[in-house]
Inverse folding.
């Protein structure tokens, strides 16, 4: 599912740092803000 893909991408990006910014960006996209 889309959520699973996003979660996997998040885990990869989190390793590189900036996790909070990425989370906010993804959340905004998911909620269409």
């Amino acid at each position: 599912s889309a959520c699973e893909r996003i979660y996997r991408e998040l885990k990869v990006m989190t390793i590189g740092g900036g996790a909070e910014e990425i989370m906010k960006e993804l959340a905004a996209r998911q909620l269409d803000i």
In short: The mean pLDDT is 76. Residues 2-31 form one domain. The radius of gyration is 9 Å.
